[in-house]
Amino acid sequence: MLKKVDITDFVLENDKRKSHIQLFYQVFGQPIGDDPIVLVNHALTGNSNVSGEKGWWKNVIDYDHIIDLNKYTVIAFNIPGNDFERKNELALDYKEVSTLDIAKLFWLGLEKIKIKSLFALIGGSLGGGISWEMAVLHPNRVQKLIPIATHYFASDWVIANVGIQDDILNQSQNPVAVARKHAMLLYRTPQSINQRFKNAKEGNIYTVNDWLSYHGILLTDRFSLNAYKQMNYLLGTINVVKNDFNLNAFLKKAKLEVYAININSDLLFQNDLEEYEILQEDNENFKHYIIDSIHGHDAFLMEYQQLNDILKQIF
């Protein structure tokens, strides 16, 4: 069931002011009280519905699963503007909002429901970037940070692809569907697609193109154009290291534990794995894991055995 908190007089990173923002969220597992709190930040096309019959991460979060709802209180906010059940349009120019703004909003939302600290802060892709932003804002309020299939800043490659998506969304006759088809080729890999479709046809139509069209139609049915513009733009704003912020120095001082999980075939977040190894060598509280998969960025939604094996060490 969706719940709501109201945030008033919010100042954006660009110094513009928003008088009222409705922040919707869901709670799973144990009621808010004495049990450890896990905050889950959703990805670009995700939402707060992380568990249950239609939960997009039910293979990870459920009763007697890795994130066990018998033990934890799991909370998930909807990123304002994500259009989940058409309940939270942000009513701003989509290019005015950053992941830092969303991180600040989520902390304000937690304060509204009387939560001061988190046992774990976890998110994949865009949600992982927002998790980095939240942890850097208030490291003493987070015990375990778990960013998955993401990075702590948007690379030029990510920014360039966000720009192409934005062009499609503003210029195409069928913007959401076409943008989604392009995005799917970033979320998977040539090896994954070639292995799956093998030049198969149904009549005169290649099966791979039929699959892309299906994903385009599916997203069009549940995502407004404004929502897709907003979520896509946010992806390119991830950046905790602006203004000469030194992540290595931060990790040395911070008490939070970081468990970064990446995918070796990720075409979207092609991170410098050597950099992660250096961070791990320099900081006892930083652990780095790699999911081995041919499926690319979406492997965090596909390789559940590997992901759960990693998460089992954390939870």
TrEMBL record:
One Pfam family matching this protein: Abhydrolase_1
Keyword hit for Transcription regulation: no
Molecular function terms, GO-annotated: hydrolase activity
Keywords: Hydrolase, Transferase
Keyword Transferase found: yes
AB hydrolase-1 domain boundaries: 36-271
Source organism superkingdom: Bacteria
Name of protein: Alpha/beta fold hydrolase
